[in-house]
Task: structure prediction
Amino acid sequence: MKDARFILGHAGVRYWEDAEVNGVEDEDGTLIPGREGDRWKVKIDLPTGKVVDWPEGTTADIHYKVCDEGEYWLLDAAGNKIAYREGYVPGDFLCHGDNGYGDYIILKVGPDGQIADYERPEIVQEEWSPA
Result:
């Protein structure tokens, strides 16, 4: 797990309108980058706190209720899955600036993909299963 470079989240979102994209409420989830059907996919560079492949110039204030509808992987630098967990949101990884209590993804993403108030999370091996 010491080789983890990214976290990849694939979460079922209950209320798409709980995000603003470029200052506009995303009522039906059509504005947020990374939507795939009823799920939101996000990949974060752990050392920097930048969202990978975030469209330049796009801002987002995300407060998604996920509850137990998520799958999360730690990836190495080559993008290989090295660890896995499902269910509750790993808050240290996907909640910055507020507490999501395992039920929410909370991120403010700047126009360069940088997550506001980002702190690199500590990886607790017992919380992850080998991929």
Observations:
- The chain has one helix and eleven strands.
- Residues 21 and 31 are 6 Å apart (CA to CA).
- The radius of gyration is 14 Å.
